[in-house]
Structures are given as C-alpha cells and as structure tokens.
Write the structure tokens for this entry.
Amino acid sequence: MIEYITLTIVTSFSMGLVYFTYRSLGKKKLTTAGIGILLSIPTIAFTTLLASTIIDDSTIKRLTKEHTIATIEFRNIGNHHYRASFTEPHQLPVEFEIYGDQWQIDARVMKWNGVGAKLGLKPVYQFERLTGRYQDVKQEENERRSVYALSEEISLNSMWDYLNKYQTYIPWLDTQYGSATYMPMKNGAVFTINLSQNGLLARPRNFVASQSIKQWL
C-alpha cells in the first residue's frame, strides 16, 4: 500500500511542476519556465520508473497466483470404478462415473501479455473433457474407458475459432494452448483444479488426496 501512496504523491508533484512550467511559459517568464523544465524532466523520469516498478511487481504477483476454478471429489463404487462429483464456482455439482485408477481433465487456455498482463487480466479457460485412465498400459488398452464432455462443442469451437481468426488484431493476446492435469483416484479424495499462467494444476484438498499422491509416486 505504501508504494501506491508514494506513487500518488510523486505523480501529483510531477503534474504540479508541469502545470507551473506551462503557466510560466504562458506569462513569458522564461527563467522560471526553464527552472521548471529542468526540475520536471528528472521528476517525470523518476515517476515513470517508480510506476513501472510497482506495476511489474504487482504483475508478477498476479501471474504467479493460482486461481481455483473447480473441485472434484471421488467415491469408490466398484473395482476401478468411481463416482466423481465435479463442481465449478457458483454452480451445482455434476456427477460422473469414471473407470480407471486416475482421472484427467483437459481445457483450452488463453493468456495475455503486455498491456493485458499489466492490467491484471486473468487467463481465459474452457474445460473440454474429463476422462478416466489406468496406470497400467495394458489395462488402458483393454479395460472399460470413460470420457465426458465438460462444455458444448458448438460454443467451444465458435469462441476459439473467432480468437484464432482475429488474433492478429488482438496484440495483447499472448497464446492459446491446450492444458491437462491428472491425479490418482481414491475413495474420499478431494482435489482442487487450479489455473495459473502455466496452465492447469491439480492440488490435494484433503488428507486422503495427499496420501493417494504419496502412494502413487
């Protein structure tokens, strides 16, 4: 907070100097105006440097911060068979039956650069699908699979096709890419699905989930 107060004071002082110089030139007080110019140049330079430092620092903090965009909870209902409760913020839980030892979620992600990043624009995402997977490759080839769409294909394609088509005219759009994360399934395990500038990340939310990762690794 103190850095923003400092920036406000310095900026006000700089604007005052500029106004003082402008008034002096208007009154043809060249000596006074010259002094104003000599003082204004380093003051404005310092203000610009201070603002850049503060913005860059706050941008780094925003870019490294993860945002929870969903949670997923598992209940075992059979051999390699789980019921997953998937919840996004401000929405009701949706349940899926998943086969396998692990779960995976995929999404498309768009992130910003330059002005967009400095303004604190968060990455834009859209979930694509939730799938089950087996740790053993032979089981992956032969056992029952499960895959669920998490968004309507029509809206998904139209939005990203539009961004691809007009990306040249959106200079602050950094890149678009696919991102996925997967974790083991365990009865009672709860995970959060987070989004950062690096893409999707799954984090254990309770003890059961943490233990399942330790056993898995």
User: Anything to note?
Assistant: Residues 2-63 form one domain. The two ends are 42 Å apart (CA to CA).
